[in-house]
Amino acid sequence: MGKGFATKTQSTNKTKKIITSKEPKGRLISWSPWPPANFQTRYPAFPLVLTLLIVLVGQWYISLLR
Predict the structure, then answer these.
(1) Alpha-carbon distance 62 to 66, whole Å?
(2) Does Transmembrane count among this protein's keywords (predicted)?
């Protein structure tokens, strides 16, 4: 193909490949931008880790109040 505009148009049948995954799409809470629907399967230890962090921060805060 030379410089400038193409003189011939190529008609190729480009098909869009639709990739379907078994992961759920969308959100856990419909109006919330976070977390995604697959959050529970990607991070199964999240509730445990969050609980431990809350307990540790709570203990640290209580020790500062004494």
Answers:
(1) 7
(2) yes
> What percent of the chain shows pLDDT beyond 70?
56
Residue 1 maps to a domain: no
Structure tokens at 44: 């199964």
Residues 6+ apart with CB under 8 A from 26: 36, 37
Q: How far apart are CA 35 and CA 28, in angstroms?
A: 6
pTM: 0.48
Q: Is residue 15 part of a domain?
A: no
∠ Cα 22 44 60 (to 5°): 155
Read off the tokens for 25: 């799409």
